[in-house]
Design brief:
The chain contains eleven helices and no strands. The chain has helices spanning 2-43, 47-67, 71-89, 97-117, 126-131, 139-168, 170-175, 180-202, 207-218, 225-250, 254-269.
């Protein structure tokens, strides 16, 4: 009897170790992507842009189910469509851009919820999509995350210098021959892919927080764009590790736990000193 209980305990502990390890590996993969992209979102004051794309992800989930394709494919297609609309309307002057982004953000989220409510034949884990479930990631999910990370980081590396130039002084960069419109489109595509990959980890409501909070913390202790990107990745990894530890110790929801850990890191960063790097 004792041996049976001991064997059961060992199996349970091994299973727990496995899913915690998978969650940690998946979270680190998202941190690797979110760090550099988050830097440009902060530098370019695109917080509302990222928030709008993340909220549109739920509409993408509904579109995926309606079209009979993977929800991730639906998210990517929808985020690309919304991003294209955003890029197209930035030049208009009737409605302020931040107001328009706020309208699109909440509209996309609301229509996504409405569309999912009509799908009686589809069982949807709404809480999972909204707040993520990193503890449920599989080996296949991890493979997708790291394959996506290779694509996203490779794409970002290709446009890094022109994107930095556009961020520092857009008019001067254009005068020097930087293809601004093409660079912005590629950057939007990279954000859309990131949202699709991160959706299962922290959920559509918390993706923008993972993109922004570690970046805001790293901004105070970096003296160059490259240093800030590396620091953001490091702080993102700390946030993932701390959030998972808190989730395991105190039975907290994992996605919000990661964001809460990132917030603690940001608050601590305020004690470091004045910000050394400013992109704008």
């Amino acid at each position: 009897m004792d041996m049976s209980c001991t064997s059961t305990s060992i199996i349970t502990a091994t299973t727990m170790d496995n899913f915690i390890l998978r969650a940690l590996v998946a979270g680190i993969g998202i941190a690797l992507i979110a760090g550099p992209l988050g830097c440009f979102i902060v530098w370019r004051r695109m917080a509302y842009f990222g928030d709008t794309l993340s909220h549109a992800a739920l509409l993408g989930v509904a579109a995926g189910f309606a079209l009979g394709v993977s929800p991730i494919a639906g998210v990517i297609m929808t985020c690309i469509a919304i991003g294209a609309v955003l890029l197209g309307v930035q030049s208009q002057s009737r409605v302020p851009t931040d107001t328009l982004l706020g309208i699109l953000s909440h509209t996309a989220l609301s229509f996504g919820l409405i569309a999912l409510s009509f799908m009686d034949t589809v069982r949807v884990d709404l809480m999972g999509y909204l707040f993520g479930d990193i503890l449920a990631v599989t080996t296949a999910d991890i493979a997708w995350i790291y394959a996506g990370a290779v694509v996203i980081l490779s794409g970002l590396l290709m446009i890094w210098r022109p994107l930095v130039a556009l961020t520092i002084h857009a008019d001067l960069a254009v005068a020097e021959g930087v293809p601004a419109h093409r660079i912005r489109i590629i950057f939007m595509l990279l954000i859309a892919l990131t949202v699709a990959l991160a959706m299962k980890i922290v959920g559509v409501l918390l993706i923008s927080a993972l993109l922004l909070i570690p970046t805001a913390a790293a901004r105070r202790c970096a003296s160059s764009p490259e240093q800030m990107a590396l620091a953001t990745v490091g702080l993102g990894v700390f946030a993932v590790t701390g959030g998972l530890y808190a989730s395991l110790m105190w039975d907290l929801p994992s996605g919000p736990g990661i964001v809460a850990a990132a917030t603690v890191i940001f608050v601590l960063s305020l004690l470091v000193g004045p910000r050394a790097f400013r992109s704008s």
